[in-house]
């Protein structure tokens, strides 16, 4: 199935299902799960991940943009889909036609959504986001009640949900989380006092799921869906299994003499004879250039240090200490090989960034190989579309 592919990510769909079920056991039957599959499911592939999450019991899906919701609908997914980010006014028709649930924070969009709902003969559900301390998209607390009152006067709209986003739930100091929660609870109380009943209230991202008081009617796991802890400070309240491994191949092995210069800029010049291996992965695939002269990959169960600058398409590593390295040997960038493991968090910390950036940085040309019970069932790759193993149900 990997014919012609030199660099690929393996996504374990059983791990996605396990993570959904693990979270559902923790939050209980009365709390729904939004599987957050924005940004191509954090680089894992939106459609296969969404399918696996729904199969595992996730009641809803969440994306950031309308175009992401349309991709899921075109693939046949029927679960409710929340568009958490901004939708332009001219996107109201698409939202209604595709049965997407937009986050609405402007009356201009609300009016157009109501009109499109009227034309379709339906009531369009929508959610309102409260900005409790992120200073991003969302209504300020004092704006929420007047907005809901005005939107509620429009025929064809149904206020289905109210939500917010926590800024520091992945940190040990949770004081700002509780400050945000207090603001949100006051907004919710004001709405209820004014006579508004909101069927679905949700505030918990992955990190906040550890705090039961943030659960309300639903939780929105992002990183946790993919089996990753939001930070090193996060006290994991349920078990998770990482879903993604990133791999490449050895495509050349050569002996270098002392004084050989390596890669662009000659930032590495050998002071001894060494054996170098070439792997076709670089910053064009999502392996950051910051790993130049300091990163490492796994080959034959041992760490091979990066030599010189990471190129757009390839990287050179030192395999002098690893016996028998040869063409086509597996190269592991993220994942386990032998007794060694490199996690997404390891890469993120070394790069001075977060796991989300590492994952969403995996480019389109990195093929995605989907696994069930450890066996490949489908490959998505540039020029190949989707190749599915024969006699395998997905």
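-> sequence recovered:
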């Amino acid at each position: 199935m990997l014919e012609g592919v030199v660099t690929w990510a393996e996504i374990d769909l059983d791990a996605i299902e396990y993570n959904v079920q693990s979270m559902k056991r923790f939050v209980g039957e009365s709390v729904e799960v939004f599987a957050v599959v924005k940004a191509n499911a954090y680089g894992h592939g939106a459609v296969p991940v969404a399918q696996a999450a729904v199969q595992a019991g996730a009641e809803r899906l969440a994306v950031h943009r309308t175009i992401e919701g349309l991709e899921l609908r075109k693939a046949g997914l029927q679960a409710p889909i929340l568009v958490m980010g901004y939708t332009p006014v001219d996107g109201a028709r698409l939202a209604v036609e595709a049965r997407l649930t937009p986050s609405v924070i402007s009356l201009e969009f609300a009016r157009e959504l109501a009109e499109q709902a009227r034309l379709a003969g339906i009531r369009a559900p929508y959610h309102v986001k409260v900005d409790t301390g992120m200073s991003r998209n969302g209504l300020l607390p004092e704006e929420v009640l007047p907005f809901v009152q005005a939107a509620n006067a429009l025929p064809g709209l149904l206020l289905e949900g109210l939500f917010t986003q926590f800024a520091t739930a992945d940190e040990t100091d949770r004081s700002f989380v509780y400050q945000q929660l207090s603001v949100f609870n006051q907004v919710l109380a004001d709405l209820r006092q004014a006579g508004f009943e909101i069927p679905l209230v949700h505030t918990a991202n992955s990190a906040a799921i550890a705090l039961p008081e943030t659960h309300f009617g639903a939780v929105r796991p992002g990183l946790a869906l993919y089996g990753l802890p939001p930070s090193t400070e996060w006290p994991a309240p349920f078990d998770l299994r990482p879903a993604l491994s990133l791999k490449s191949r050895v495509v050349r092995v050569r002996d270098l003499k002392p004084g050989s210069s390596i890669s662009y800029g000659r930032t590495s010049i050998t002071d001894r004879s060494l054996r170098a291996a070439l792997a076709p992965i670089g910053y064009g695939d999502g392996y950051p250039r910051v790993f130049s002269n300091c990163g490492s990959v796994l080959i034959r169960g041992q760490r091979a240090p990066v030599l010189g600058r990471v190129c757009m398409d390839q990287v050179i590593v030192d395999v002098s200490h690893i016996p028998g390295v040869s063409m086509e040997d597996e190269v592991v960038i993220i994942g386990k090989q032998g007794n060694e493991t490199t996690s997404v968090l390891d890469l993120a910390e070394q790069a001075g960034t977060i796991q989300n950036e590492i994952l969403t940085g995996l480019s389109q040309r990195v093929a995605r190989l989907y696994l069930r019970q450890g066996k490949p069932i489908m490959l998505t790759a540039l020029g190949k579309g989707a190749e599915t193993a024969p006699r395998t149900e997905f």
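The two ends are 16 Å apart (CA to CA).
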